Amino acid sequence: MFPNGYYKCIFLVLGMTLTILGLYPPPKSVWDEPHENITSRRFTIFLRSNGFDWIDVIKYAPKGMCKDVNLHVMQDQIRKDKTLLQDALRRVRANGSKCVYVAGSALNDAVHDWISDIPDHEQGRVIWVHKNIVYVDDLIFIVGRKHPSAHLWSQTQEDREEIMETAKLCRAVMEMADSIPKESFKERFAEHLDEHMKEKHECVSWFCSFLGKPYLPEKLKHWGDALTRKNTQSAIHIVSLIGMDAASHIPAIALFLGEMLLKSLQAVGDCCHFENWDDWQGFMCHGVASAVAKDCHGFIDSLKKVRECCHLHKPADFLGFMCDGVASALAKDCDGFIDSLKKVGKVCDLHEPADWRVFMCHGVAYALAKDCDGFIQSLKKVGNVCDLH
Question: In the chain, what is the straight-line distance between the N-terminal and C-terminal CA atoms, in Å?
Fold first, then answer.
């Protein structure tokens, strides 16, 4: 299963209502840090809570990369050895969890087979609440959903929308699990879904009314599922502040920050003296997303050249080179970043929005898109002078 070796890793559990049933711990996992991975951090934002535990069917983490794991062997083992799933469910019950999000196709197949094997005279143990929710014995399973990391690998809008919908299902089940008895859970959950659809319709209609549009424009379609009664007003204020074009570069996941996101944008705008939407357009859009949108294949070729030139063979090195920019600095320490901007503005005499755009936004992605070969040559010169090997 693990061609590059493995080590035992059973994550610490804290008795949370929701448990994510996983296949195996990710590489570099530490047993008492179950949320210190990108999948957990991203799912925490969608779920609006870090109140979930991980329990993996396979108790070992790979020493190599996920792409090297032999999933076919692992899936075959789980299918043949039914005790692996039963042991995981025993640990879920021992943890006191009531809700189980079954992550990924392999475990969904295993859970489906387990339910199908329940004898006809015991079918009362099983209640299908919803096409993706089944109550079996004392546990409520969220099934038929992709792994919470799927959208990170595919980067498709479809998978981003699915993980947001999965998180909503998990939140709904968690809210009802302790207060609604099994016998009436199906009826009450249907009422909850009706209320959820009503809220979504209200929020999208409210937002479209502000835009003066009968429906969400294509540029902001990805915001649809993220709009809630708590953040729609903030979303309206954000578009009023920075304009639709710049707002379209804000991912739906950021909307869950609501008022905090708005305040961060306002602070940046005040500091950089942005006066209109065009200023924000230059600030928000001259980055990786813009370069990909303009010429995806050309940008990929440029990235390959830069990777070879700068010896960026590890993902962490590449991420640091490409992504540690404005958005990263804001996310880490907004107030500190604003103070730093003010100091830079004084030293460099940056008073006009156009000055700030050139200073902040004409970075790696912009340089690649504008003149890849020239940029590569410049990098080589810098590398030689500064002895960067």
Answer: 36
Reported pTM: 0.61
Q: What structural domains and CATH numbers belong to the chain?
A: 6-179 (3.40.470), 181-276 (no CATH), 286-389 (no CATH)
pLDDT tens for each residue of 248-263: 878 776 777 778 888 8
Per residue in 40-75, is it b (16+ CB within 10 Å) or e — as a string?
Answer: bebbbebbebeebbbbbbbbbbbeeeeeebeeeebb
8 Å CB contact between 68 and 32:
no
Average pLDDT over residues 37-56: 89
Whole-number Å distance between alpha carbons of 117 and 114: 5
Residue 99 has pLDDT above 90, yes or no: yes
Task: List the alpha helices (DSSP H) in the chain.
Answer: 38-47, 71-80, 83-94, 105-116, 150-154, 157-177, 182-211, 232-242, 244-247, 259-272, 277-285, 288-294, 296-309, 315-323, 326-332, 334-348, 353-361, 364-386
Cβ atoms < 10 Å from Cβ of 354: 12
Q: Is the pLDDT of residue 206 over 60?
A: yes
Question: For 223-235, how does the pLDDT look when each residue is reduced to its tens digit (9 = 90+)?
Answer: 887 788 888 898 8
**3-state class of 383 per DSSP?**
helix
